[in-house]
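Retry 2 of 3 after timeout on previous attempt. Resubmitting structure tokens to design endpoint.
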């Protein structure tokens, strides 16, 4: 049975959004560590922003 193109497109968009979300989380995860001081977190965020 063939899957309609619309379903394929939606699945591809969903997968792309998932991958983008995981990539973004990977970038900011270290800065979200509750063990960091504000100064340490600020330095990490500034580094990411560069």
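Retry 2 succeeded. Sequence:
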């Amino acid at each position: 049975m063939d899957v309609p193109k619309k379903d394929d497109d939606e699945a591809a968009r969903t997968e792309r959004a998932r991958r983008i979300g995981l990539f973004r989380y990977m970038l900011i995860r270290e800065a979200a560590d509750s063990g960091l001081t504000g100064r340490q977190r600020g330095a990490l965020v500034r580094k990411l922003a560069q």
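Attempt log closed. Residues 5-49 form one domain.
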